[in-house]
Specification:
With 155 residues, the protein is an alpha+beta fold. The chain is built from four helices and eight strands. The longest helix has 14 residues.
Length: 155
């Protein structure tokens, strides 16, 4: 971020670790760097929820770490994943486990494992077939070597 640029905290409340080091003291709210308890107020799809906590005055999104559920645009599988997740955790108080080295995903959402009464929700989604482990979501397709190996950074 160049001098004078401002972070859009409304659309992207979470700062990456590098951004916290650079200007985290300017954040209008506490940055999440460790595990916390929250209430799930909305399930967007099979791997994204909205949380409410007592230490922030706004609700915010969380992407389930390490899992990938079908998109809603895929029809029935995406809707089934969302509906299952909503039935399981919407309105519930959960523990969110944060990997402090991998806290924020590429769209600026907080990443975390959601645990409900000792049960890892992401692992449950995978076990029951509503989601895939994140690394396997494109299993069977040819890899994009430029993206995977970042070859284009050298050219």
């Amino acid at each position: 971020m160049a001098f004078g640029d401002e972070h859009n905290y409304k659309n992207f409340p979470e700062l990456t670790n590098g951004q916290i080091e650079e200007f985290g003291f300017q954040s209008p709210h506490e940055q999440i760097t460790s595990d916390f308890e929250a209430v799930v107020v909305r399930v967007h799809d099979g791997d994204t929820v909205t949380l409410r906590v007592d230490f922030r005055d706004f609700d915010f999104p969380l992407r389930l770490a390490s899992v990938d559920a079908p998109e809603l645009s895929t029809g029935s599988p995406g809707q089934e994943a969302r509906d299952f997740l909503a039935g399981l955790i919407e309105g519930e108080e959960v523990l969110v486990k944060i990997d402090r080295f991998n806290r924020v995903e590429k769209y600026g959402r907080l990443l975390g494992e959601v645990v409900l009464r000792g049960l890892n929700v992401g692992e449950t989604m995978v076990f029951l077939g509503f989601a895939s482990p994140f690394g396997l979501r494109r299993e069977g397709s040819l890899p994009d070597l430029n993206k995977d190996l970042r070859l284009n950074q050298w050219f």
